[in-house]
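STRUCTURE:
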């Protein structure tokens, strides 16, 4: 590593050259990939040079010179999530040639581990974001028993995040989880920022999606997987649909358990009033926020629950189950309601919002105000402060980022 070059960039205020590593990245759509894309955009807007090292998607090879992909393969266990496989060294020369100032990893597994190893070998400081409670996904591991996988994840998490210079977490809940598992690396809570809402016309979006003007639209967004508790959302909203003839539920997303979740919806005997969109491109998700009246979310496995804040940006009151990071942005009777993890509790909360126009308007205003606290600009500025501190500690030189 050219330490003199890095210090010169620090001293003369030139942009940093940064390497981000992640097992999950666009075109895969999830909270990690959305967060990475937002961070890269924000850093580049400020003039920094950002390169992404990530798993390749077999049918969509990378063509961007700032996008460095490892070989990716799809498996039956995770059809939408390619796994990075060796040889990783094919990207090592690119990494060394670019002479990075800092490495920022976003997953602790294969690609994240490669990033950590290369950073340490090159004497480059490393920051890592802990995005996900990975032990909640232990059931996806083939062959091994779930508890064995959970134990391995806990041990690996402690080892991985204990070996970086600074950890970023999106919420106090995720920081507490790390501390509870023996990770005592210096850490900072920085909520993931969201883009400003698009100037979408509610009427035009409803027309585009074939939704009637007088429909009461309940929307939920997320992977169709058991850890997201979509069955609870369906059961709760089914009762609302029975009592409110104009109400509809729109489930935005796809995932490994779609068939089972669709069976839960079909058992409600509500015909076409429960809609499954399937996979939706990231930029099109906003259409569904724009047409909705209320947002419902039952997952307790989130570290932050990015979709909750995204929905709030469109003025949607949020009905969120207590117990995870998703509810951290929810203020009772201000921008939505935090509820117990029961279908009847969600039913009551949704009915309360839909049946009272004045309350819905007040919650909508509160939701928009809350969303403004989660700006991309704030997130990027805070992360650059972390980079600045880590680099100053390593080089003991003042810097101007």
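SEQUENCE:
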């Amino acid at each position: 590593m050219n330490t003199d070059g890095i210090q010169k960039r620090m001293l003369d205020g030139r942009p940093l050259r940064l390497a981000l590593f992640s097992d999950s990245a666009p075109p895969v759509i999830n909270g990690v990939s959305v967060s990475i894309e937002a961070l890269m955009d924000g850093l580049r807007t400020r003039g920094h040079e950002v390169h992404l090292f990530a798993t390749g998607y077999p049918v969509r090879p990378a063509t961007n010179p700032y996008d460095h992909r490892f070989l990716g393969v799809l498996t039956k266990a995770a059809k939408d999530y390619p796994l990075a496989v060796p040889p990783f060294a094919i990207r090592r020369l690119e990494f060394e040639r670019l002479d990075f100032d800092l490495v920022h990893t976003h997953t602790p597994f294969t690609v994240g581990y490669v990033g950590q190893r290369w950073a340490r070998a090159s004497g480059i400081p490393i920051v890592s974001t802990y995005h996900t409670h990975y032990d909640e996904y232990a059931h996806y591991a083939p062959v091994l028993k779930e508890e064995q996988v959970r134990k391995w994840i806990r041990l690996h998490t402690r080892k991985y995040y204990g070996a970086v210079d600074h950890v970023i977490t999106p919420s106090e809940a995720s920081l507490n989880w790390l501390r509870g598992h023996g990770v005592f690396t210096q850490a900072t809570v920085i909520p993931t920022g969201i883009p400003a809402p698009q100037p979408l016309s509610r009427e035009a979006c409803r027309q585009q999606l074939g939704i009637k003007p007088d429909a009461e639209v309940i929307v939920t967004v997320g992977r169709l997987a058991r850890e997201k508790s979509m069955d609870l959302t369906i059961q709760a909203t089914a009762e609302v649909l029975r009592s409110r003839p104009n109400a509809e539920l729109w489930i935005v997303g796809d995932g490994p358990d779609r068939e089972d979740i669709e069976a839960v919806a079909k058992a409600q005997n509500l015909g076409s009033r429960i809609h499954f969109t399937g996979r939706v491109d990231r930029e099109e998700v906003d259409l569904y926020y724009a047409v909705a009246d209320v947002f419902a979310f039952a997952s307790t496995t989130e570290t932050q629950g990015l979709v909750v804040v995204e929905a709030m940006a469109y003025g949607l009151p949020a009905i969120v189950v207590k117990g995870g990071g998703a509810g951290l942005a929810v203020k009772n009777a201000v921008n939505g309601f935090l509820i117990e993890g029961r279908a009847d509790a969600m039913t009551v909360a949704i009915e309360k919002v839909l049946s009272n126009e004045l309350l819905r308007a007040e919650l909508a205003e509160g939701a928009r105000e809350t969303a403004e606290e989660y700006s991309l600009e704030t997130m990027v500025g805070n992360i650059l402060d972390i980079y600045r501190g880590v680099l100053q500690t390593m080089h003991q030189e003042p810097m101007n980022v």
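REMARK: The chain has 14 helices and 15 strands.
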